[in-house]
Amino acid sequence: MHNRLLSRIVALAGALFFTTAGVSSSAGAATVTVGGKNFTEQVLLAQMTTTLLQAKGFTVVKKDGMGSTVLRQAQENGQVDVYWEYTGTSLITYNKVTDKLDAQQTYQRVKELDAKKGLVWLDPSKANDTYGFAMNRDVATRLGIATMSDLAKVLKSGKELTFACNSEFYARPDGLKPVQEAYGFTFSQSEVKRMDSGLTYQALKDRQVDTALVFTTDGRIPAFNFIVLRDDKGFFPAYALTPVIRQATLDANPTLGPILNGLSAKLDDATMAKLNAEVDVQKKSLEDVSTAFLKSAGLI
Q: Both ends of the chain: CA-CA distance in Å?
């Protein structure tokens, strides 16, 4: 997605970084440059991929902490060989497709469009890191809210609820205004509390707001006992987490496909939320979390 987490500062820093970084290894060499974006799930996946490939005999150069657009450009330019992308991000942000597509259609469309750019979408995981509206479980139960339609019904009844989100969500084509139109409710200006993405979870936990924007595989959701309201009208696009690799890199190292697909097959929403929580909440190191998971999954 996650252009939604991209700031101009990060983008400029990433651009500067890549102007000084060397181009990834030439075809035929067993060196792979692994990229990653600038939030927990992505730096964790970059570390897992690095650990896995090193265990399989590859030399790995890891380049994480990048903004979405900078990382995508680096891959198209051959500076990054592989990273984990979200189907909806490629569809909407990189390919400018606005059609309403289901998860399988989204994957097929980006696979076809990006193949023309020399990029191969491998097997999608079952992890779908899309947007969600979350509430404290006890509050949602008390108000009878389990779905977005339930939330709309409560708001339209006159109940005032506050909502925390980042500034970018307000302007996105899959953001606040369109979702309000889809479900037929409106937060007043005073009810919307804008803040950095990471702060929305703490604000909700501390009950400074009634509901908050979250990313559905974030580890703080189970850790803080939140409930994510079901998107019963299917408004939010699919953001299936998928390894994407340069065709030239795959041609030179064909074993990379099965290795990365093996990792993808082990990932789903619950697994990613648990692993993210180990980093964000339990403060375990990326290396320890990655190695323990790969061993438990039988991948190394």
A: 29
